[in-house]
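Subject: design request, 453 residues
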């Protein structure tokens, strides 16, 4: 493969070019990134989107937490402490809690997630990932009726119809369309964009809609009705003149378009999972795809956000049988989203301690939830300062997986990919995996003493 002009210039300046790097930002997990670095400093990236580029460069910005911190009772001031002190304090908090909450997991490695779930079980706590506030309804629907899925590689090589429903990949997954769905040349789609038809269904004319041949502007919260109407017209039955704000003729046109293609793919996002109907929307979307397979080949893939939220669901499932909102407080794994999800537990004041890792509920949860979080003993593990670190009692910095640490992650199509280490982490900073391992070992010791007493 020919080198780019940027690579040639980098080599002339004796800079190192690291190839085949995986971007640890979104669920697309682009694995063709090239990193240009001078010694241990990242100078530039090739192939990465603007957000991915910032993710790599954020490893060396001034917003990093460089030492563990402790916030005093009734104080906003933090005091620097050692890792040994912070880990001991965290272990004491978790070992003494009756029902601790473990939340996050979506931006760290599967190896760290595995240890974290063991820690939650040992402490009799609740462990939940960010799916509970994004694609949890997708998971619930798939558990109910199954799902006809495929890999993004199959989409690239075979799909001649792409439907983006309730998502905006131009902003949320910037390279998704160029790598897998709309523009790349595949084995059976040799002409790329010219061999595909793109449909966008959304209440708003998004930037993704501007690139589509068909834009269906569904009424807000009426996705279920539109999907039901599509299923009806596909079977050749009649529907009202207008459904979900869409004229009957346009729905019939869309149904005929779907039936005329060789391989269709429905990508759906939080515009469907977090609106009226929630998991019922996904249930009927799966039923629509199943109906389409009577006429042609059709699949669907959720547009997962965090780069390893799919991995967290996978790890939880193969460890204990449930993909999120898993409760160990009765001594065995129990799963009841709406009761055992993180935000619900914080809202009802049902946990007496919390550990947050690889996520930022302080920026996304309701104020009432975070007010309670700020009142109880809490631990936050994160490389950067966030709203959550600002209200936690113990804060421990960690390395960034995919930049300073190796680790396994699952792409949005549930394909596991190994993330590379590109640069060495700042001196003395531990990985998520090591921090959790040390907390787990100490909690085992404390629980052993407790059992002996």
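Subject: RE: design request

Done. Sequence follows.
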């Amino acid at each position: 493969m020919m080198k780019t002009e940027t690579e040639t210039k980098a080599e002339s300046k004796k800079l190192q070019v690291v190839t085949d790097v995986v971007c640890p930002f979104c669920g697309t997990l682009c694995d063709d990134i090239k990193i240009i670095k001078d010694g241990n400093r990242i100078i530039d990236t090739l192939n990465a989107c603007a957000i991915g580029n910032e993710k790599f460069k954020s490893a060396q910005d001034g917003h990093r937490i460089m030492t563990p911190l402790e916030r005093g009772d009734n104080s906003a001031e933090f005091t620097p402490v050692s890792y040994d002190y912070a880990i001991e304090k965290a272990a004491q908090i978790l070992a003494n809690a009756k029902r601790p909450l473990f939340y996050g997991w979506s931006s760290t490695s599967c190896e760290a997630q595995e240890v974290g779930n063991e820690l939650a079980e040992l402490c009799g706590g609740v462990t939940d990932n960010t799916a509970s506030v994004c694609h949890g309804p997708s998971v619930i629907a798939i558990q109910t009726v199954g799902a006809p899925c495929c890999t993004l590689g199959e989409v690239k090589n075979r799909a001649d119809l792409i439907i983006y429903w309730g998502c905006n990949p131009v902003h949320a997954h910037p390279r998704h369309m160029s790598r897998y769905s709309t523009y790349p040349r595949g084995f059976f789609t040799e002409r790329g964009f010219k061999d595909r038809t793109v449909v966008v269904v959304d209440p708003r004319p998004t930037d993704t809609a501007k690139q589509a041949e068909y834009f269906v502007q569904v009424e807000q919260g009426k996705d279920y009705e539109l999907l039901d109407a599509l299923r009806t017209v596909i079977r050749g039955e009649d529907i009202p003149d207008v459904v979900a704000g869409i004229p009957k003729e346009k729905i019939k046109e869309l149904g005929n378009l779907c039936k005329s293609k060789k391989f269709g793919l429905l990508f759906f996002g939080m515009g469907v999972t977090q609106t009226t109907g929630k998991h019922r929307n996904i249930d009927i979307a799966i039923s629509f795809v199943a109906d389409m397979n009577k006429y042609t080949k059709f699949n669907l893939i959720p547009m997962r956000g965090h780069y390893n939220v799919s991995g967290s669901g996978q790890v939880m499932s193969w460890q204990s049988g449930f993909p999120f909102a898993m409760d160990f407080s009765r001594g065995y794994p129990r799963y009841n989203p709406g009761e055992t999800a993180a935000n619900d537990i914080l809202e009802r004041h049902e946990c007496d301690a919390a550990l947050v890792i690889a996520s930022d509920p302080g920026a996304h949860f309701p104020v009432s939830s975070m007010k309670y979080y700020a009142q109880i003993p809490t631990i936050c593990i994160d490389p950067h300062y966030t709203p959550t670190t600002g209200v936690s009692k113990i804060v421990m910095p960690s390395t960034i997986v995919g930049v300073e640490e190796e680790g396994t992650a699952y792409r949005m199509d549930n394909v596991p990919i190994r993330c590379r280490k590109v640069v060495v982490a700042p001196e003395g900073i531990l990985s998520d995996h090591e921090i959790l391992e040390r907390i787990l070992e100490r909690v085992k010791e404390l629980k052993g003493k407790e059992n002996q007493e």
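The mean pLDDT is 94.
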